[in-house]
């Protein structure tokens, strides 16, 4: 029923769409970032943020602030907003919203497992977890010794269980296969999310498949770059790419064969949407790639607000907010460590 | 308007035109700046302009002071939070020892906060230990019970086992443990166990994970604790289960310990011998009572501290707020190049000049400054803010107007007329003196309690009603008046002003129309004759009366609107608007609807039976035809022709001349301006030039735009004259609805219930009647009549003259600061 969402969309999701658009207008603007970048101390940042939507969350913090407090409070705001939306949502929007958090869940699982592997305190690890990706028995992850146990003990109860089917091995956990696990999970998750959005149809399918394809392609590039020089075989590497997106399937073949960053670049430049990203980078450089990708992503996310009656705005808002928190973290770090010259390195303006 | 006399102290016309304002520059030496601003805040008649708009908040001069104030406010909030937790409310009375210096306060607050935090930390530790012990005691009791039962059952079983002496496979023992216990006894394999408390909502998952992790080689027993337990870590009340887990092997133990940790299950040591257990319970109870006294002592101490904070916190709060606002304003001032003085700019009413200068002098004197502040009036083309001096009576009426739009600087303020016309139009729709008295009593109660209510926070709805109490007062008084005119009291007619003028000719006239009645006395002296009530012709008669009355009221109010546009034009010196807007508008409206009003009055006076619809319609369709029986007065046809012609002429009169004249004026002005540049360079030396630059110099003149604008205005007015007059018919419609509804409630509920001659039905009937009257007639009808009156004022009345594009004067004032206390 493409094009007919307007008739029924607002029955269930109109209120939340209004809410999310309202939230979006609370995002920091370029003027805010300019002001923030001129701050001298973290207190200045607090002062500036207290005039924004973050005000109520920061006002009761005692004065010697830390970057972590700022980030924590900003994240708290995001979580509150997310919970509010989730409470109000009905099917299928509630499922869609839950899908958004699975990525964080995967990250948290990996964080805890790696942490325990390096014998960190579980409590300390839990504090580092993203609050959106928490589930009940997350702390129990520390008990598991190998993938099979991980699955049988804990993850079977979580929504991540179906994604695990591909990586159940009895091998002991180590850094390498945890990383592979992360990427396999992520691949399964993205594919599932993609299928779900396709099933929803209409503008949601159109916009979300575009956004998710970009996400999948970005991950493919990152996997390739990170796996250069490791013992990962070509076939293994290819298995980690999600089976959709602009690069699928021919680009994947070529990416799998890459052996240095310039080859990746050569592959990517064949695809017009990515050409502009790589054309900004000089040869042999991969440092600024993240930022370039983030910028492109933010651009696409912002564009999704131009259309009405679809769920993409929720995804876009959550992503934009996360980007904003990353920005704030970077700015606060730079301010705290007196590295103000580097402020602009990683900040992605949203508007 | 006797009502306006109440604010008699004020100069005349002060509500019709907003106060004259001036843009003022004050140069303040830096040492007396703080005091000056705070004196100005006490005065509350100066609106600061932000001269540092381009600077971000933390780049401004007094950013650090603002931060300190913010920090102090945070500390005060912290105290407040703890006070509400401890059930203390800050005392409202403000001590007069006002001389607290901000710096001292800062130090003091810091000390108090540190003390409080330390106390909290101590008591938290104690509390945690206390809660842990409580939990421990619970575990000891519950698990002890379980062990005791299990043991006694196991011995029973063993006895049975020995007595029966059969193979173990045939016993269908219900619990794994009992089996193990029996094996335990025979094979002497030691099982490990651990016990503790787990939150109830997690207990299912806990059990599941334990089972999975040990592949089922575990026995878990749980007992629900009936009362919620305070969790030692979080300090919140949680429902919990006591659990005992049995396991075998060191590996399983490690796993179980980790899982317990992950689920936030607190484990406690436990002895399986009964003697030791009792000893432990005894010990724990002793510790608990010990801790309890310590905690109580600590709490008392803390409450004392909070008490001392409570009696001053309100005062501190006020001080911090004041300081914060003062620094906020200081940040709006620009620093002089020499860094020795601050320059403030802002608006103040001209009458306040003296007061402000006084305040400045006092500030200079009090802060022992060598140089006084310089007060200087600037000239500007910027439009000043609108400021009406209202009192508690007029302010709510002014709010009604402001809700539509703030008046342009010094334009005629409809608020003056609204004070009477608004409640009056409301009353026309709400005419019933019974209901009016109910409203009056309610609003009198609000006014009596004014002192009490104005200090406290009210609910949303009550707040609104309270705010508009004087509006409601006038509304109710007027509805008593119109109710008397309509002769309605809960839809019952009363012969208040003497007996009815009419009487029955014979006995059958109950069902007759008015013709069955004969006039026996002089006309009923005031309002509607009660005899109309209940007759068949009641509705046609009242409808005709109220409809005509609505038209008269409407035409009168619209005329008032147009006349106000004349006053505006005269005040702003625009003869163009008088000649090409006011006059044709007057002619147009009155030649059509003014004439209709005239006809209505003539018909009323003469008692003629002419058909006014017919006259009005054929005045347009066939103006030259004879009026025949509809003629009300001689020469009517000629008059109609003249009026029609005038109305036709008025339309192009409104439309064409004004844009062309404006164009001509603009061209004339433009010629003069070709010499302007030289003049401006002269001015640039002057300080004032700077201010002229924010004012708009000459705007672009676009003829087509002006013309289209005028076209729209004309069309709007011509169509509006018809539709607005029709719109006033809502007065009749609502009044009809009100009287019909009240008669329905009276007849179909009260009289019906009365007719049954049954006490219970009568009581039920009365209850229904009261609720219907209060709910529907007094609340809903009041609201709807209010809204319709509002619309008549905003649309029909104000669109004749009101621009409403001004902005409000928002002086820097400590008094307002106290009001918007959260």
UniProtKB/TrEMBL annotation, chain A:
Its main location: membrane. GO terms for molecular function: proton-transporting ATPase activity, rotational mechanism. It is found in: Vacuole membrane. One of its GO terms (cellular component) is proton-transporting V-type ATPase, V0 domain. InterPro entries: ATPase_csu/dsu_sf, ATPase_V0-cplx_csu/dsu, ATPase_V0-cplx_dsu, V-type_ATPase_csu/dsu, V-type_ATPase_csu/dsu_dom_3. It comes from the Eukaryota. Keywords: Hydrogen ion transport, Ion transport, Transport. It is a peripheral membrane protein. It holds the Pfam family vATP-synt_AC39. Belongs to the V-ATPase V0D/AC39 subunit family. V-ATPase is a heteromultimeric enzyme made up of two complexes: the ATP-hydrolytic V1 complex and the proton translocation V0 complex. V-ATPase is a heteromultimeric enzyme composed of a peripheral catalytic V1 complex (components A to H) attached to an integral membrane V0 proton pore complex (components: a, c, c'', d and e). PANTHER family: VACUOLAR ATP SYNTHASE SUBUNIT AC39. Subunit of the V0 complex of vacuolar(H+)-ATPase (V-ATPase), a multisubunit enzyme composed of a peripheral complex (V1) that hydrolyzes ATP and a membrane integral complex (V0) that translocates protons. V-ATPase is responsible for acidifying and maintaining the pH of intracellular compartments and in some cell types, is targeted to the plasma membrane, where it is responsible for acidifying the extracellular environment. Subunit of the integral membrane V0 complex of vacuolar ATPase. Vacuolar ATPase is responsible for acidifying a variety of intracellular compartments in eukaryotic cells, thus providing most of the energy required for transport processes in the vacuolar system. This is V-type proton ATPase subunit. The lineage of its organism: Eukaryota, Viridiplantae, Streptophyta, Embryophyta, Tracheophyta.
Automatic annotation (TrEMBL), chain B:
GO terms for cellular component: vacuolar proton-transporting V-type ATPase, V0 domain. It is a multi-pass membrane protein. Keywords: Coiled coil, Hydrogen ion transport, Ion transport, Membrane, Transmembrane, Transmembrane helix, Transport. InterPro entries: V-ATPase_116kDa_su, V-type_ATPase_116kDa_su_euka. One of its GO terms (biological process) is vacuolar acidification. The chain crosses the membrane at residues 424-447, 468-486, 549-567, 579-602, 638-656, 759-780. It is found in: Membrane. Its main location: membrane. Residues 95-129 form a coiled coil. Pfam families: V_ATPase_I. Signal peptide: none annotated. GO terms for molecular function: ATPase binding; proton-transporting ATPase activity, rotational mechanism. Essential component of the vacuolar proton pump (V-ATPase), a multimeric enzyme that catalyzes the translocation of protons across the membranes. Required for assembly and activity of the V-ATPase. Belongs to the V-ATPase 116 kDa subunit family. This is V-type proton ATPase subunit a.
